[in-house]
Amino acid sequence: MITITIVRNVEKAIIRFTVSGHAFYNDPGKDIVCAGVSAVTIGAVNAIEKLTGLEPRAISESGLLKAETPHSTDPQRNDQVQLLLEGMIVALESIVESYGKYVKIKETFAEKGG
Known about the structure:
Helix content is 40%, strand content 27%. By secondary structure, the chain is an alpha+beta fold.
């Protein structure tokens, strides 16, 4: 199963997310659930960089994507990052609606200072 963990701060802004696991919906290369989740999450990281000019810290390897939200002194750019990430969550929720047996989303709040 793919687990997507969204971490928010006390202001409810997304500060990082992690995608881990494999769907095992189909054979590698034919797994539309893995492909969909990967496209949405990697696409969000790429969109943040291309559309806001801010670079998220991200680590990607087989079965794992970790991304930390970049922060700017410009509140408008931070709002843009949040909008892109909230859009990512909406897209992921659509995948969960159809393939909830293979993917789940968890949301949590960061500890103070985390």
